[in-house]
TrEMBL record:
Classification via CDD domains: ASKHA_NBD_AcK_PK
Residue positions binding ATP: 17, 207-211, 282-284, 330-334
Protein name: Acetate kinase
Subunit structure: Homodimer.
Amino acid sequence: MNSSLVLVVNCGSSSLKLAVVESKSGERVIEALAERLFTPKASMEIRSQEMGETRIGLSDADHGQAFEVFATHLAAEQELNGRIIAVSHRVVHGGEYFHCPVLVDEEVLQKIEACSGLAPLHNPANLQGIHAATKHFPGLPQVVVFDTAFHQTLPETAYLYAIPYGLYEQQQLRRYGFHGTSHHYLMLEAARRLGQAVEKTNLLTVHLGNGCSACAIRRGRSVDTTMGLTPLEGLVMGTRSGDLDPGLILHLLEHMGYSPEETDELLNHQSGLLGLSGLSNDMRTLEESARTGNRQAELAIEVFCFRLAKSVAALTVSCAPLDALVFSGGIGENSVLVRKRTLAWLEPLGFVLDKQKNEVHGEDSDGRISPKNAPDVRVIPTDEEVMLARGAVSLIAGESP
Ligand code: ADP
């Protein structure tokens, strides 16, 4: 196999992210992002090494139409002609069916469809991407990589909810966990930086983007994580509440006249940092507002960090003795303040921050932001696209994942 270029496809509910990735180096030959699909403002931005930057209006386009525009653009890239060897799709929910990347066939499509009830915003969009790519690239292997797959090693003790067992057996109501591709990448990269074999490495990886989750990794396997049946459980996120008393949901439904749809909207789209601050779901905006004295912004950041520290402490029971605590995602990689506040809460567990290294995100020390004599804490940028590309290449080459 001479080329190792893979087209990586990530379909959100109203967005489409595409990239041609060189799977060995991780280099992006082309990247495209289509946003606000299904609205008059839909548009796509393409950045290509060969052809520079292009912005295209896509008024009211769906995923299929956006994909078509990209495919036409790709065909004009002389350099890439015939060099892409596979398409790799991110699929959010794989239920209990999938624990590694697989090639798309009828049965796989049916199983992704069967998991749509558990991820109604994501899996149908992911299927759209698979159908569009199959149409435009019929000769290429289509591979799917699941957000849930890395967490399929969770033990029963971590994945069962304490509800009647029949609901797990008959309806598969259990904890699945998400962001698996990111946690998997962080595990490999952390082990590499630590100079240790993955299967001997114990980690706590924290992915803080718009969605946030943490994962306990014991000897190279995910053994607990903060997200559950859906990506709503766990940490405080941009617009999602994370953990709350299920009684609160009953209260909304029974005593406050909320419908299931309104409750969904409240907890998934109006809560988290946005709900607490009444201002924004964006950590950068909140930090700026907090600096100028906005009390609600300050409170939202404080709740976010406290809850994160509490979860890290809880996850430690599954992965002590810890080789490293890893911060990643847009917030984890860039927010000096969030790392500082979170580690301050974790001082009783022995965590210490090197203030200067934290200021530069550990860039001068392989990501390390704690002193040598304290538990290892690192900042490691995540790369889900490269994992998708590598997953596809290994599968095609017949390597075990
Ligand atoms: P997504 O989950 O959509 O991929 P990202 O991983 O890009 O999101 O993370 C987005 C979050 O990262 C936003 O809350 C954003 O404000 C935050 N972020 C990015 N840069 C900074 C920064 N310099 N300081 C604080 N927060 C930041």
